[in-house]
């Protein structure tokens, strides 16, 4: 059982979902006999400072949030061999929790702090910035921007809404992608570097990606038309879109990406870089309590 827990809460996560769950989470931690200290974060930088302080004090760092705060805390604890994280889902998508078998109910997830086992997981790196899920760009850049500006009451539906809104103004781009000696230039929609399987509230963009293999699954998406894109969208939730001729998956520890026009790279729901970028996998960079 953890010695003590530093609970970091993003008050705005999931449209306030994390904050609404907080009283029940604190009550459950007390019931489980876990000494804990709660802090509401004011920014990702603030959260990173709190995470380092908690680790220095020998506390397990638990996040009650969405994937954005998880990625920020992972960046703060990355490379600290004694640091230990725990995940209490409190966002709209909670894809990192889902990929690791953590209950999507925050109160139920508290039990993992007692019965879970530490596991070394990879993180992704975009020119020095850390993410835990999927870094993507192109069509995804516009869809992520729209999702972040959408009203909080939409919940997980926001990702489908954002994709359909982005569709109206999208025009394909030419991407230059290099994974090891495999160098490709193609006209398409999206390039994604996946450390984990899912994003966007359960979209299995990279269904075979693993969090402990030291590699990225690089997904290249090039539908022939808007109609083809719309038809393929439901398949992403099952991961069967990778069987289509319009989708290519490459694998390697590093990918270099450029395009014929500027794009913001998003990861874990937040902007993380601007093209051109180098994305790489960092093996075993964090230790996370996961269900036994």
Automatic annotation (TrEMBL):
Record GO terms (molecular function): ATP binding; kinase activity
Cofactor(s) annotated in UniProt: Mg(2+)
Domain of life of the organism encoding this protein: Bacteria
Keyword entries, A-Z: ATP-binding, Kinase, Lipid biosynthesis, Lipid metabolism, Nucleotide-binding, Phospholipid biosynthesis, Phospholipid metabolism, Transferase
Domain named DAGKc: residues: 1-130
BP term (GO), one: phospholipid biosynthetic process
PROSITE patterns: DAGK
Record-linked PANTHER family: SPHINGOSINE KINASE (PTHR12358), SPHINGOSINE KINASE RELATED PROTEIN (PTHR12358:SF54)
NCBIfam families hit by this protein: YegS/Rv2252/BmrU family lipid kinase
Family: Belongs to the diacylglycerol/lipid kinase family.
Name of the protein in question: Diacylglycerol kinase family lipid kinase
């Amino acid at each position: 059982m953890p010695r003590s827990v530093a609970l970091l809460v993003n008050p705005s996560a999931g449209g306030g979902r994390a904050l609404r769950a907080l009283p029940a989470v604190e009550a459950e931690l007390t019931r489980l006999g876990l000494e804990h200290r709660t802090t509401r974060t004011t920014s990702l930088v603030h959260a990173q400072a709190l995470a380092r302080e908690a680790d220095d004090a020998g506390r397990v760092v638990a996040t009650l949030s969405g994937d954005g705060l998880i990625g920020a805390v992972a960046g703060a604890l990355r490379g600290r061999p004694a640091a230990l994280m725990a995940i209490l889902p409190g966002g709209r998508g909670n894809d990192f929790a889902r990929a690791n078998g953590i209950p999507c109910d925050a109160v139920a997830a508290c039990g993992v702090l007692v019965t879970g086992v530490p596991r070394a997981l990879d993180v992704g790196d975009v020119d020095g910035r850390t993410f835990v899920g999927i870094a993507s760009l192109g069509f995804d850049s516009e869809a992520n921007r729209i999702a972040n500006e959408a009203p909080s009451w939409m919940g997980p539906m926001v990702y489908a809404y954002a994709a359909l809104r982005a569709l109206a103004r999208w025009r394909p781009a030419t991407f230059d992608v290099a994974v090891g000696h495999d160098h490709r230039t193609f006209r398409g929609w999206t390039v994604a570097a996946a450390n984990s399987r899912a994003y966007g509230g359960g979209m299995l963009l990279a269904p075979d990606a693993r969090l402990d293999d030291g590699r990225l699954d690089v997904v290249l998406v090039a539908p022939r038309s808007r109609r083809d894109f719309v038809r393929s969208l439901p398949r992403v939730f099952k991961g069967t879109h990778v069987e289509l001729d319009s989708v290519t998956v490459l694998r390697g520890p590093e990918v270099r990406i450029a395009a014929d026009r500027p794009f913001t790279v998003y990861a874990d729901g937040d902007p993380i870089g601007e093209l051109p970028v180098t994305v790489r996998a960092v093996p075993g960079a964090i230790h996370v309590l996961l269900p036994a």
